[in-house]
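Worked example 4.2. Below are the chains of a multi-component assembly; read each line carefully before continuing.
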Amino acid sequence: MKKNWVLSQEFFDALLDWLDPDRELAGKKYEDIRRRLIKILASRGCYDAEDLADETINRVASKAAEVRSSYQGDPALYFYGVGNRVYQEQSRKKPEAPPPPVPPDAATLEKQSRCLESCLAKLSQENRTLVLQYYWYEKTARINGRKRLAKELGIASNALRLRAHRIRAQLLKCVERCLNSEN
Amino acid sequence: MTASSNENHELRQYLLGLLPESERDVVDQRVMTDSEFFAELEAMEDELVDEYLSGQLNDQERKQFELHFSIGSERQNKVRFGRSWQSVLENSPVEVSAAHGRFGFLSSFRAATTSWRTALVVTFSLAGLLGLSSVWFASRWQRPTSTIPQVIGVTLASGAARSVEQPTTRLTQPPANATVNVELEVQKNSHPAYKVDLSKEREGIKRYDDLSAQPKDGHFIVNVPVDAALLDPGDYTFELQGTSESSQPDFLGTYHLRVTR
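Applying the procedure described above to all two chains together yields the following structure tokens:
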């Protein structure tokens, strides 16, 4: 199959049917699997991880109708197997080195800061305080500071870590939307 | 090393491309099927970005971060976001140090947005020409410049705050949604835990238990996170005691803070 092959509606529907009979849940599972594939490919050093994940999904979709009747187990692992093959093919091609990241100019940085302030202001007060407190501690005081914060909130340290990360991820998405709307 | 720290180490190695292939495949499969593990991985990405930006990675990790970790667009976005985020965190604290008898108005200056900075530069210049005193600047620019809830740092030295040589540390009333991290200086870390009684004009407000001392600038500090909503204008006292399971609490010192309008 050629790269850039376009996923037809028929194949896409077959893929979603395999993931879940409920279309909304199937859509969420699809997004989730795509995110995970991107993460895995990026962790292997693929700078075009998103393209490779889409190529993987296209290949799975083209086989979904026949695979679903015989495959047993979590479909995510089937995607993973196909993703492995896509990665190996890509590795053999010895892709060109990625272009160096373009450093943002002062105007972009200013815009990003403005968006971040606006996104922080949109958080609930509880989440704002939590995320600022969690990341504020200096290195030397970080471990104990975070332990104390977790104790005050009555949750385990790891639960606090994941909660702070989720708020940060929410902020990142908000900033990206804000930057796109300003462009 | 606990199981959790082992896992954290493994995730770091995985993200930096330092994990052997056989172990990498095991992590991959958990990434695909275990939602909590995936969330851990994403949290670790944030931590690596923060450590990279604050220069905390060792040479090998830094090199791998640049050559391996940060080459995709999603992670480059994370690094860009991380820079802005660190800037917000760096600018949130308004440091006031009683130990050195100065107000941290430069921190407040850094906290301002660019447009504010320009306005501040102009104002500073005009004020300089008019010969206004630096004390005026200090109290003037102590005011918060952002509507974002802040984490404000205040460092207090024991006892000396009420002496003639060392004026009481002052803090302009912070926004009610801020948190004031009051750092109480101690010369040594003599107890496994500390407690602090906060009172306003001799009336107890709140007790903070199970605090710990952290090294900072050649001494130790006990950090007391105070909800700014508690800090109306007035004089506050922080009474610090060292605690241990086997003995009575030891009184270690009293620290003073004046909150002004």
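Take a moment to check your reading of the output against the notes. The helical segments of chain A are 9-19, 23-43, 49-70, 75-92, 106-122, 125-136, 139-153, 157-182. The mean pLDDT of chain A is 87.
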